Amino acid sequence: MPCMDDVKLQFEGTSDVRSVSARRIPSQLEVGEGPRWDPHLQEWTCIDISTGGFFVGLESGSPAVTFPAPLGCTARHVSGAVLGACRDGLYSWDGITPPAKFAHLPTPLKQLNDGRCDAMGRWWIGGVGLGDDDGCLMRLDLDGSLEVVAGGYALPNGIDWFAEAGVMLHADSYSRRIFAYDFDLESGCVENRRVWWQGTKDDGLPDGLCIADDGTVWVAFWGGHVVRQLDSTGSTIRELRTPMSQPSSVTFGGPSGSQMFITSAWADLEPSERAEQPWAGDGMVIEGLGRSNGDADCLVPITALSSSRLDG
């Protein structure tokens, strides 16, 4: 990622139509995902699902580490280790030795996908099933146990919480839905799943999402050329038109929490489409659209990672 370019993006909403400046991060990732502000490193991080690469810093052209299997998402352990959710299990990387597996999956899956830690440090991870609608939502609990807590997903994706309302949102891309659950922070229990947002084929697929401090929900829509800001009921407030057709995830962070980081992908694009979308696979950083440091203190606290590592 040797350089950064500025571009003006069209921002359309109920009360304004204007342009905003975005910094291009020319990363060219096949499936860029998982943007997170890392308070341990004071850097942005992201992943390439296809290669298993974990990237640190906006100007890094090479991954800090490559996990041994396709990578769905990462989290940070209280020790500073990076945890990776891979197709064959959960791994821990201490920054020195190769990533080591510390948990097997509770059920056979095709791929792990997006995930996030709640305020207690539980790690919630989506799993893509072997058949249609066999996907699931898993939880790495505070005692180190990994279990399936919900099923019936086509392609589980972005996840975040309305903390004060006790509600968790979780996207299911292929069904074009975002589900809401009643969520209890103390116990980690979820119940009463219902459809919070339902899209159509014209919307694109809801992918990664985040909830800003003002309670609005930002969602990247794969195939839609757009990141949408939704209110607490799921109604669209504004749309940010992106130069890449496959924005894959969005979150806030940075030193003051005011930077928006959007990832994207070039996977599945025809050569002609890639030529028309030079930003496909790149990241973007935008200032001034919102604020959140919700991920900053979300560290996985499970103990004895080293003693729980598995062979194979």
UniProtKB/TrEMBL annotation:
Cofactor binding note: Binds 1 divalent metal cation per subunit.
Pfam family, one: SGL
Cofactor(s) named in the record: Zn(2+)
Segments forming domain SMP-30/Gluconolactonase/LRE-like region: 31-265
Chain sites annotated for binding substrate: 113
Keyword set, alphabetical order: Metal-binding, Zinc
Gene Ontology terms: biological process: L-ascorbic acid biosynthetic process
Keyword Transmembrane: no
One GO MF term attached to the UniProt entry: calcium ion binding
Top-level taxon in the UniProt lineage: Bacteria
Residues annotated as binding a divalent metal cation: 33, 157, 207
InterPro entries in the record: 6-blade_b-propeller_TolB-like, SGL, SMP-30
Similarity comment: Belongs to the SMP-30/CGR1 family.
The protein, known as: SMP-30/Gluconolactonase/LRE-like region domain-containing protein
